Amino acid sequence: MMKLTVIPGDGIGPEIMAQVVRVLKHVHAPFEYEEHQAGEVALNSLGELLPQTTIDSINKTKLAIKGPTTTPVGGGHKSINVTMRQKFDLYANVRPVRSLPGVQCVCSDVDLTIVRENTEDLYAGIERMVDEDTAESIKRITRKGSERIARYAYDLAQKTGKPRMAIVHKANIMKLSDGLFLKVAQEVGWQYPEITTKDVIVDNACMQLVTKPQQFDVIVTENLYGDILSDLCAGLVGGLGVVPGANIGANHAIFEAVHGSAPDIAGQNKANPTALLQSAVMMLQHVGENAKADAIMKALIAALSDVNARTGDLGGKGTTVSFTDAIIQRLGH
Ligand code: NAI
Ligand code: MG
């Protein structure tokens, strides 16, 4: 058994997390669940957005599943996600993007994964005012940072049997920084002869993703491009509401839905657990439980195809709980 930190979060978080844990228990996922709080609920009950007890738990379990959290506006609170990314050095942001039945989308047959470097690039926060009228941000790219993200992406491609890697960059303009990223990623690629690598300049990548997304299996890219491409790809398959995500480091991994806490529908048994359940599927794959991951994904797809089962946001007649019932029914015993 592995210990797993469960962070229900705010708004619809506790409702969808309860259903996801129900599915995990149904397939006998090898977890011992440790529930901890983060977000507004933690601020109100424990006085902190991200309490030390929650951090201690993740330090110990090294594995967490997280519901959406509300970051209060004002009060100078630091984003929970940014804090966790820094604390646990979660260098890989992984977002699988796949078209699902019952979900209105721009393109069908999309099944790709974006692997975004999560610690460097223009997001490292190295900024200064040169004088009153001039500001600059430093784009920092290192061999170490590029190598570990490329290795993560190629290992993922290999593990999941995805034969095509696209390295997305702008090395034609930023010859040194993006040039280094591209060179190091290509060098890592040489060690994976069964995977074909192409490099794609980021603006062309946007066009290709919108017109022919089926040509991509795994995309590895820098922080800024990855941020933008991740949302673009989510848009291709029906929006942020249905896609999962993971933040992964050398020693810790945190899986979460990409959507927010949806206060407008919280407590009404309306929320769609699809994104969080897919995050749980990613987590099962991460710990090597591929058969359980596949079984859940298959049952989820079958339930989504049924208008009586799927939730209202997808034009269905189901609720959070009845949709989960439908998934569990399709999982069998
Ligand atoms: P949101 O994603 O919570 O909601 C946007 C719209 O999508 C709402 O109409 C909502 O009802 C709907 N929606 C979202 N998830 C859904 C689900 N699973 N099933 C059915 N409908 C769903 O975004 P919003 O309103 O901008 O943010 C609300 C709060 O969430 C804010 O406090 C924000 O800070 C937080 N947030 C947290 C994130 C996280 O923890 N990773 C990510 C994004 C926002
Ligand atoms: Mg973003």
Automatic annotation (TrEMBL):
Record key words, sorted: Oxidoreductase
Domain Isopropylmalate dehydrogenase-like: 3-327
Domain of life (superkingdom): Bacteria
Record Pfam families: Iso_dh
GO function term, MF aspect, one: isocitrate dehydrogenase (NAD+) activity
BP-aspect Gene Ontology terms: isocitrate metabolic process; tricarboxylic acid cycle
Keyword Repeat: no
EC number in record: 1.1.1.85
Leading EC class: oxidoreductase
InterPro entries: IsoCit/isopropylmalate_DH_CS, IsoPropMal-DH-like_dom
Family: Belongs to the isocitrate and isopropylmalate dehydrogenases family.
The protein, known as: 3-isopropylmalate dehydrogenase
UniProt source species: Bdellovibrio bacteriovorus (strain ATCC 15356 / DSM 50701 / NCIMB 9529 / HD100)
Name of the gene this protein is made from: leuB
